[in-house]
Design goal:
Number of helices: 11
Structural class: mainly beta
CATH topology of the largest domain: Rossmann fold
Shape: globular
Helix content: 10-25%
Distance between the termini: 54 Å
CATH superfamily of the largest domain: von Willebrand factor, type A domain
Largest sheet: 12 strands, mixed
Strand order of the largest sheet: 20-21-26-30-29-28-27-37-36-35-33-34
Number of strands: 43
Number of domains: 4
CATH architecture of the largest domain: 3-Layer(aba) Sandwich
Length: 755
């Protein structure tokens, strides 16, 4: 019986099928970055050494499967062991098409029924796949247009089960260490799954000389800063074979730059962990490690700062935890947006024995780079679960590097409590050269979230992973403190169409959040408001009178139903536009544009009644426009369901802004705080002197004022703002005039040949 016949029969039988021995095992290739040419012993002799793979293809209009868009899943055998499904290896396929768009009555809003797919891992010894696990592929249509494949939207489920027993593999999961100063000594640890008793772990330098043994290696750094290559080998003493090997690039920095930054070395990436985390190994079919947040309690007394007190989380209850991991990007998508959606759709399929995910809401998204996204979610369960149990489910669902694999069980600490409401933060980076992704995920209960907000931001909202071969350099910038006042101008663009009737409470929340922020930030600010159907300033124009601002923020719901927020804000900011004519932005002030709409942007749309001067000359280019050229940062408070069709979020990403779910009222205050602090950093921050092409490793930042170290704290300390590459001080930490400020940091100076 052919593969195709076997697959089709399996699908007809309750949508479950076996993959035979073809998918029973994945051959793991170790040491792909190593300079050592030793081959690794094939540990999968009991089974075939190739696997079943699948491709996910986004179908565009005029394809042969659907009259509109859709998704195609292809299956086949990886006969050439390339770890990707080539065209001549495709043996069968399944597809699902977009559904017909439906116009919701009352607000004329179109519900776009997109085709969606979720690929989930099936653990060994489960009801779906007895024995060695497999993969579950779920196809469906997004009936409610929320970009998430929900249980009632699934049309087809295919269980791809491995049926033949596989040998236990020796697997190097991760190497953990710290940035090391020249001439100093640190401990480097390697975590290995299924390490045989007859094997030994040996460390070699780039010349093949043995420099250490065992899982922990006491490493004394050379006196010259730079990158140094080493190789870890798991050697079979009896049979004189190499069972596994992994390259390690140790980055040595100059001795004058103190750092406590931890490093997790993965296959292709190095992840720099802030000092607020402790690292723990992960065992099983994964290339990654766990991270647990410490509870940081800085002791501040007027302007005299003591050394920060660092203690473990209360009762060691693991309030905030997470993981870093690297895996292949196959099947997940062709760009970072599709990859992120695939991961979230897989998370949404998680179930417990007595619980399941009832809500997974995208709160906000930040574009860290063209290949890196930071996204925040509210995750709600039908009943309470401990955070360790939930994070284990998430790891097994999205982070494994082997189909049908699993991690070894994680054990909750005694102090952990049940919760049904969590904050999930994800940073996902697409490494195109290796066709892999690096993910950094944190999880904390909603009730504990505020305690760890600063740590969450600098772990998942800033770039902390770099190529293993990247050269790390250090720098110290010195400033003479000045009396700086944040000078910020804001242009709000409020949707005044009929569909905003349901969002009037959201506008009130936005007003209150903005008022609270401005009253506590001490910013010299001016605010003006326009709507999505005109560029004319509301009320008296720019003002800092909260009574006037409150009135301007509520333009009613009788405006034009064609929402053109980008067009009219652009018109207002052009020469002779209403903002420019009013004398804004002021000299020395930053300008932020905040767009609030429950519909997608309609830049070119213009009714028959539209005046000639309000007709766009062509489509809007999100990469080449007035906002980008002038450094105007755009923030979008919009419907996440419009993300695939609107340019509001695209413009926010391109200008280093941020998007927020318009329905997430409980996030408005945090969102407005970020906007205010971003604007303050642009106008009153101390800008680092690294050039634009260099990536600052924010976890290595150290700030001193007159020789006293200042903690990173958003109330009485400092924060780093990667969008403007600036450090901004707050509260009692604001330096006195002429104080000496030193800001030390490490940065990535491109990818160069290591020593």
């Amino acid at each position: 019986m052919s593969f195709q016949q076997y697959l089709i029969i399996g699908m007809k039988m309750n949508k479950k099928f076996k993959l035979s021995a073809l998918a029973a095992c994945t051959l793991v290739l170790f040491g792909c970055n190593s300079n050592n040419s030793d081959s690794v012993q094939d540990q999968s002799s009991l089974v075939k050494d190739f696997q079943i793979l699948s491709n996910k293809i986004e179908l565009k209009k005029e394809n042969k499967y659907c009259k509109d868009n859709g998704i195609l899943i292809e299956f086949g055998e990886d006969k050439n062991k390339s770890n990707k499904l080539d065209r001549d290896e495709v043996q069968d396929s399944r597809y699902v098409c977009d559904g017909e768009a439906v116009v919701k009555q009352g607000d004329n809003k179109a519900i776009l029924k997109k085709a969606l797919v979720a690929i989930s891992n099936i653990l060994p010894n489960t009801s779906e796949c007895h024995g060695n696990g497999g993969r579950k592929i779920l196809l469906g249509v997004d009936e409610n247009s929320n970009n998430l494949l929900e249980k009632n939207e699934i049309k087809h489920v295919y269980d791809m089960c491995n049926i033949q027993e596989k040998a236990e593999e020796v697997k190097i999961n991760s190497i953990t260490s710290q940035l090391v100063q020249a001439g100093s000594t640190i401990t480097i640890k390697v975590n290995i799954t299924n390490l045989p008793k007859y094997a030994k772990v040996v460390w070699y330098d780039d010349k093949g000389k043995m420099v250490g043994e065992n899982l922990a290696f006491e490493y004394t750094a050379p006196k010259v800063a730079g990158n140094y290559n080493y190789t870890i080998k798991v050697e079979d003493i009896e049979n004189k074979k190499i069972l596994a090997k992994q390259s390690v690039v140790i980055k040595v920095i100059p001795i004058e730059v103190p750092t406590k930054t931890g490093i997790v070395e993965l296959n292709n990436q190095s992840v720099y962990i802030p000092s607020e985390f402790r690292q723990q190994p992960l065992s099983g079919d994964i290339n990654g490690a766990m991270i647990y947040a410490k509870n940081i309690k800085p002791l501040l007394e007027a302007y005299s700062f003591k050394v920060s007190e660092v203690i473990s989380t209360p009762n060691d209850n693991n309030e905030m935890m997470g993981f870093v991991a690297e895996k292949s990007a196959k099947e997940l998508g062709e760009n970072i947006n599709n990859i992120q959606n695939s991961l979230v759709n897989s998370i949404n399929q998680i179930t417990f024995d007595n619980s399941s995910i009832t809500d997974l809401t995208n709160l906000s998204t930040t574009k860290v780079s063209d290949v890196e996204l930071s996204t925040d979610y509210d995750l709600t369960l039908s009943s309470g679960e401990k955070p360790t149990d939930l994070i284990e489910k998430i790891i097994n669902q999205i982070a494994l590097d082997k189909d049908g694999g699993q991690i070894n069980d994680l054990t909750p600490s005694e102090g952990e409590t049940l919760s049904s409401e969590y904050k999930l933060n994800m940073n996902v980076k697409f490494n195109q050269s290796t066709d892999s992704i690096t993910m950094i995920v944190t999880l904390v209960s909603k009730e504990s979230e505020k305690r760890y907000q600063d740590i969450i931001v600098k772990t998942t909202s800033e770039s902390i992973s770099v190529d293993k071969a990247a050269v790390i350099k250090n720098k110290t910038d010195t400033f003479a403190a000045k009396v700086l006042t944040s000078k910020s101008d804001f242009l709000f663009v409020i949707d005044n169409s009929g569909s905003m009737g349901d969002e009037q409470n959201n506008i009130s929340t936005l007003t209150e959040s903005f008022k609270n922020t401005m009253q506590t930030m001490g910013i010299d600010f001016q605010v003006a408001t326009i709507t999505t159907d005109t560029s004319e300033l509301r009320g008296k124009g720019f003002t800092n009178d909260f009574k006037q601002i409150t009135a301007d923020f509520k333009p009613g719901t009788y405006g034009n139903g064609i929402e053109r927020g980008i067009y009219f804000s652009e018109k207002a900011l052009k020469p002779n536009g209403s903002v420019i004519d009013a004398g804004y932005p002021r000299i020395g002030a930053s300008l932020s544009v905040i767009i609030m709409s429950d519909e997608q942007s309609q830049y070119e749309s213009c009714g028959w009644w539209c005046a000639s001067e309000d007709r766009a000359e062509g489509p809007f280019d999100v990469k080449n426009n007035l906002f980008v050229k002038n450094g105007y940062r755009v923030y979008s408070i919009v419907e996440p369901t419009d993300a695939n069709y609107s340019q509001y979020d695209d413009l926010a990403n391109e200008t280093n802004g941020k998007t927020l779910n318009i329905n997430a009222q409980n996030e408005y205050q945090v969102f407005m705080d970020k906007i205010a602090k971003d604007s303050g950093a642009m106008s009153a921050g101390y800008k680092l002197k690294s050039i634009a092409s260099q990536t600052v490793l924010s976890s290595t930042l150290k700030v001193t004022v007159d020789g006293i170290e200042i903690p990173r704290d958003s109330k009485n300390g400092w924060q780093y703002y990667p969008q403007s590459n600036s450090v901004l001080f707050f509260g009692r930490a604001i330096p006195k005039e002429n104080s000496k400020i030193n800001i030390s940091y490490n940065y990535v100076d491109g990818v160069k040949k290591s020593k």
